[in-house]
Each structure stands twice: as C-alpha cells, then as structure tokens.
Amino acid sequence: MGNSSGWRGPAGRRRLLFLFLLSLLSQALSQPIRYAIPQELDRGSLVGNLAKDLGFGVGDLPTRNLRVIAEKKFFTVSPENGDLFVSDHIDREEICGKKSTCVLEFEMVAEKPLNVFHVTVLIQDINDNPPTFSENITELEISELAITGATFAMESAQDPDVGVNSLQQYYLSPDPHFSLIQKENLDGSRYLELVLKAPLEREEQLHHHLVLTAVDVGEPSRSCTTQIRVIIADANDNPPVFTQDMYRVSVAENLPAGSFVLKVMATDLDEGVNAEIIYAYINIGKAVRQLFKLDSKTGELTTVGELDFEESDSYTIRVEAKDGGHHTTYCKVQIDISDENDNAPEITLTSESQHIQEDAELGTAIALIKTHDLDSGFNGEILCQLKGKFPFKIVQDTKNTYRLVTDGALDREQIPEYNVTITATDKGNPPLSSSKTITLHILDANDNVPVFHQASYTVHVAENNPPGASIAHVSASDPDLGPNGSATVSPSSGVGLDLGALPPRGDSGHRPAPRRSSRPATEGYFQPGLYSKTIPGALPNYSERTLLYSYNLCAASHSSNTEFKFLNIKAEDAVPQDLLCDEASWFESNDNPKMPSNSGNLQQVSFFKPFLP
Fold first, then answer.
1. Rounded distance, CA 593 to CA 588, Å?
2. For residue 576, what pLDDT is reported?
3. What gap in Å lies between CA 60 and CA 56, rounded to an integer?
4. Distance between CA atoms of 219 and 224, rounded to whole angstroms?
5. Which of 13, 313, 518, 522 could form a disulfide with 595 if both were Cys (CB 3.0 to 4.6 A apart)?
6. Closest CA to 542 of 454, 588, 610
7. In the Cβ-directed half-sphere of 490, how many Cα atoms lie within 13 Å?
C-alpha cells in the first residue's frame, strides 16, 4: 500500500522535527532574554553567551553587529563570540533602592536585517551593608508615674539591603523594668517600642542604661548597636492625646516649597508647663526631612523639597507629642503622592543608515526608535508617529520600541532627501510630547530613460562636403546622477556617419559629415540612430531605456543639397519592410536602402529600426 502522507517515513519525520524546533525558536525569541547576576560583580565578569541564547552562530556575528541600546550601559557584548559582560559598577541599592526586585532592562540591536531583542538582568542582592543607627547614644526621659505597659517609641536601624539581607531582628540588653516589641507600618517597614514592665522609682534609680542591637540574617550576618539612657522624670499626671491615631492625606507631586500638607493635633488635660506640647518626628530618614517640615509648636506639616512620584509614591511618618511634664504620645501620618504628567517622553534614535536606495522595497527598515516616559499609568503611555506626510511609516515592535520603514515609492529626481520628524506623545492631560528629526538621503537608481530635446531633426547637407564636418546638433537629457546619467549617441548600424558622445545631464553633440565616397550620394551613409545610457562596468541598455529614431533621406543626384529628416517612429507603427517612395525594387536584401545612380528627380527615402523590448 502507498504512503499517502508526506510527513511519514524518516525524511518526513525530520521535516516535522525541524518545523517543531523552528516554532519553539520563534516563540523563544519573542520573549525577553533573561539573566540573573549578583550585584557588585567586577567589570568584565561574564553574564552569559547572548549570541547563543539569540540563536546566532559565531559566523553570523561580524555581519549582525550586535550592540547594546540603553540609557546607561552596564553591559557590553563581545563582537568576537557574543558573550555579554559587565561593563560598569552595579550597586543594587543605588539603582533600585528598597525595591524587592531589581531588574536592569535594555535592548540588543542586530543589523542585516535590523532586529531588536529585549534583555532583562535580575540583580541579586548581597549582604554588603550593615544596619546602622543614626545616633550612638539615645536619651529617653520617662515620668516616674508612668504606668506598667506604657510604650515609648525608639529609633529603628536602617539597612539598605533587601530580603534576608535587610534588618530582621532587634535585641535589648536584659533589664527588669523594660522590654522591646516590634511593629509594622502599612508599607511593611518596622518600628520599635520600649515597653515599661515594672513601676519606676526615681528615688531608687535616676537612670537606666540599655543596649539595643540590630541584626540582619544575611551571609555573613551583620549588626550594629546603640546606647539608650533612660532618665526618670518627676510626676506629670496626664499625657497628651492625638485627635487621630492615623492621619492620611493625598497630595500632587511638584507642589511648590512651603505648601501646606496637613496638621496634627494633640491635647493635654494638665495645666501650665505640663500642658505645653512639642511636636517632633520619630524615626525618619534624612530624605523625608528634606521633603517635609513639621512645626514643633503648631503641628503643621509643609513641603520644603520637591515631591516626585517617580522617586516615591508614599511616605509614612511617625510624629511624637510631648508635654512639659515629659509625657509623650504618638501618631502616624500617611502621605500619598499622586502622579502628574510632568515628564515628556524621551526618544532614542538608532539609524542603521541615513542613505536609502531609490528603488528600496516597501517595508525596508531604516532606523530603530526607542521611547521612554518616567511617568506612570496613562501619563506614561506613549504614541509614536511621524509629523507630516512621507513615504515612510512607523511600525511598533514592542511596548516602547519601533522601526521606521519605507511605505511608498521613492523618487530621487523629485525629492533627493527627507527631513523626517518623529514625535512621541504621552496620554496625560495635558499630553506632553517630544520629537527628533532624521535626515534621509535618497541614493540614485538608473530608473530614467534619456530624452531628446526635439522629436525630429531636419538636416541639409551639401554634397562633396569635407569628411568630419559637423552637419547636425542634437540635445538630450537624463535626470539620473553620475554614471546613471552618462550617455552616448551612436548609429544602430552601418557606416558613413560619426556621432559625437553626449556628455551627461543634457549636454549636446554634433553629427559630423559622412566620408566622401565614389558611390552615388544616395547610398546608405545615414543609419537610424540610438540614444543609450552607458554605465562603467555595465552593458548599455538598448531596450526599454532607448529612444528610437528613423530618418527620411531626400536626395537628388544632380542637386547641390541633400535633406535628411529625422522622425520619431513608434515601434507599433512600424511597417514590416523598408520603404523607398513607391519602388520596392530599389531595396536589396541588406538593411541599407539604395537609390539608382541615374535618377534625376528628387526622391525621399524613409527607413527605421523597430523597437525591440
């Protein structure tokens, strides 16, 4: 029984396996190439073989010209073997701050053909930073009337590392009067409170000395300590109380300095000095102090620095209220930053070539365009388009990468170059945009037929004229450039007529007189002429790029003048044989018409060469 399936048998199975692997490769290349490396690698450290992961062979690398496209180049690719190396110092905390995941993204561009590949490198944290307290010694004043279970805010340690390498645990030196508890803010950060476990007696002990230790669980583990000096203060009956445990507000980014944010308020039932309340920050970093100012007397919070949503979208602040009798209470302030469309899109333009062949095919890639907007949401969504009408269009590859390709016929003789303006506009309100202009030069192609300046030429020639004398002046032009516009004029066959070469770009040439001959003046000294383009290193084009002319020869054997009329004859109008007045018997078997030497009357000879495509 015959095998009806083309996929069966060894050859069919190999073809099926090839198509399956090809589909897997296509799916793989459509996804980003991903790597993971620890931070702080030395320059020159190997990340991976990018050429292999992209499916390129070593032999492809010289022509594909792999290169990195990024705002800051932390990596470079070897042109010899396609290895991806670290080219700059990578500090995870400097690049990503406290983000749980730190990823560097960039594009790899390959030429011939122009392709773009998205590459992501996950930067893994190492435990290169110990926790730190802002102060080596902290003083805490507590009333002797403080009740058991009262809590007192403590400064937390700061650790720029993330995950297990970040701060994980605190330890307090043993003391019968105090213990330590850890709590969490809404944003996941931790804060400490010192808890009073037993009543204080100022008369027995004026001060208590404690040691607070902060430890992370990285490898190796790192730690730091601070001294706590507790001062026992005289009695104050009532502590201050905030009107809210949590204050929350949303403000727009880019508020001018001095703008009001909110006001916290606490009250105290005591009188006099014991009722005077002072507000202060508790456990905040330097960055927050540079952005917000807390009035210690009124509790008003105002801006002192520029708020930037792109740097942080929220801040959690703890505020302390302390009365004159040293009682304290605490509240939280949550400040959410709303995004404003304050960043125009950025355009990075990489041009493979600013010269385009005039006869380039539709869809030919010209340049790679990459856009970026620091804003988020709609404010960060970008529309990339051309400004004006051009024979080009923009094709989107990925979310923020595009290609500029041809989208119409190019005619160098009409427009030799284009100044193409590319505009990127975001979807914010109001929208912001930026633009870049690229100049594209059109390279000439041999796409124009040379054209004579007249359709016909009438020439009067005296018999017995000296050889080499000029008998006619013809002019023609070709709009092409360089060798494409260089041309010569010559008869298609026969002898007796010498045509001078036409210089390029419409210069003219003279037709010299025929050589003297003992034959009758009406023999075929003048032949149909061709204007053709000659290009160094290439054959002249005698088909679709040739203008055909026929000549009518009027001659009288006893007359002193002979008239030659050059007529433009279309190929479709050509008759199947040469004509000499009405006497076909005057023709011989060759191409040259002849006239009897004994003719005494004025005759007209009309002949031509048909156009052969």
1. 7
2. 39
3. 6
4. 15
5. 522
6. 610
7. 13
Check if the beta carbon of residue 101 is closer than 8 Å to that of residue 128: no
Residues 6+ apart with CB under 8 A from 257: 303, 304, 305, 306
Q: N- to C-terminal Cα distance for the chain?
A: 54
**Mean pLDDT of the 365-388 span:** 88
Fold of 33-124: Immunoglobulin-like (2.60.40)
DSSP reduced 3-state for 611: coil
Comma-separated ranges of CATH 2.60.40.60 domains in the chain: 33-124, 137-233, 241-338, 346-443
Contact between 597 and 586 (Cβ < 8 Å): no
Closest alpha carbon to 327 in 278, 395, 396: 278
Name the phi and psi angles at 97, rounded to 5.
60, -130
Pick left, alpha or beta for residue 163 (phi over 0 → left; psi -120 to 50 → alpha; otherwise beta).
left
> Residue 491's pLDDT is what?
58
Q: Which CATH superfamily is domain 137-233 in?
A: Cadherins (2.60.40.60)
Residue pLDDT, tens place only, 240-290:
999 999 999 999 988 899 999 999 999 988 777 888 999 999 988 888 999
Strands, sheet with 328-338, edge to edge from the N-terminal-most edge strand: 246-252, 328-338, 314-322, 278-282
Dist. CA 161–CA 200, nearest whole Å = 39
- Say which residues have a Cβ less than 8 Å from residue 232's Cβ, sequence separation at least 6: 142, 143, 144, 200, 201, 202, 205, 206, 207, 208
- Integer angstrom CA distances of residue 450 from 180, 433, 435, 484, 533: 96, 47, 41, 10, 7
Backbone angles phi, psi at 489, to 5 degrees: -115, 130
The domain 241-338 is placed in CATH, from the list 1.10.3710.10, 2.60.40.60, 2.40.50.100, 1.20.1050.10, at 2.60.40.60
Tokens of 364: 């030919």
Hey, what are 480's tokens? 């092409």
Considering the domain 346-443, what is its CATH architecture? Sandwich (2.60)
- The Cα–Cα gap between 292 and 263 comes to 12
Assigned token pair, 198: 């037993």
Q: In this structure, what DSSP letter does residue 400 have?
A: T
- Please name the amino acid found at residue 63: T
DSSP assignment letter at 417: E
Residue type for position 612: L
Angle at 453 between CA 447 and CA 455, to 5 degrees: 100
Both tokens of 307, joined, read 């708020």
- The least confident of 89-98, 234-243, 486-495 is 486-495
Q: Quick count: other Cβ atoms within 10 Å of Cβ 251?
A: 16
Amino acid at 238: N
